[in-house]
Design goal:
Layout: E1 4-9, H1 16-28, H2 34-37, H3 47-58, E2 65-69, H4 79-84, E3 87-91, H5 92-95, H6 108-112, E4 124-129, E5 132-134, E6 144-145, E7 148-151, E8 154-156, H7 165-176, E9 184-186, E10 192-195, H8 196-205, H9 207-214, H10 226-236, E11 240-242, E12 249-252, H11 254-259, H12 262-273, E13 279-282, H13 285-291, H14 295-303, E14 315-318, E15 322-325
Parallel strand pairs: 1-2, 1-4, 2-3, 7-11, 12-13
Antiparallel strand pairs: 4-10, 5-13, 6-7, 8-9, 14-15
Amino acid sequence: MPDTDIVIAWVNGQDPKHAKKRAKFLQEGPAQETLATKARRFSDNEEIRYNLRSIRNHAPWVRKIWIITDDQFPPSIDQELAREHNIFTVDHRVIYRGFEGCLPVFNSLAIETMLWRIPELAEQFIYCNDDMLLSGMTKETDFFVDGKVVLRGNWADLTDKEISFHASNQLAAAQLYGYDLTRFFGTPHVHYPMLRSVLEEAFESLKPEFARNMAFRFRNRSQFWPISVHAYQAMRTDRAVGYSGKPDWRHFSVRFCKTASAEDLITRLEIIRDHKVKMTCVNYFEAVQAKVPDALSYISEATGPMAPFERPDKVADVKGGGLLAAV
């Protein structure tokens, strides 16, 4: 089986240096959509601690972990020990080499445009955000089969449906490949298996579109979602297979985190705590914790024992979960 890496996009928006830089470009540039600039989008609740912990415990077959950052390093992780466990940071300047005029960037859609440019990145890699966690034991064939990506998702017709910010980005990607609202491949918001060569090929064949996408400092409704572009390109070139099993993920969407009752949140937290699914994403942890104060204990149990590269400072004991970061 070929080597497989994991790439994680992470930012600590509370870092005064980063917050000051972000505010500067918000003031100097054109007006941005509120959804693209909310502080919550850049918040760091130390999800990266549990993300990395979950990979160590539930995906020991991963070769290297690359954390894409803007001159930062997660304070909950010991940098020297992280390197010993094949965890490395990649600065935006590295993936934007030759396109430095687009920096600084505060936009995941733009950053995802450049993922394939990580030096030494394996051909097979799994991309995720810092709020995505592995909640059960995985194997490589959950993500790749015979050199092809395993695509989770389904074709849908969005005619007469409300088009959210995220859906508009997916639609922009679909339109690049001749699809529209009537035939639209929706991808669940969990770990994304990708092939470096597929994204590079898309970049080469859609250079003007990629150049535009990478240049937005903040997210924009007119951008395309590179993850969707990768999916269509992989399907078009016969490097994708559909996932046919029962859903092995749970997504705590922003809407669900906001509107679900404490009881409903606990039910879903119990599913991931008990390892009944392999992947999860908690998009708005602050809202979950406000209703379920011990939500971190569920996440800690879901992700497994504390990893040796975690820093134990600013932590508290939680029943059944070992050490947890104070938030």
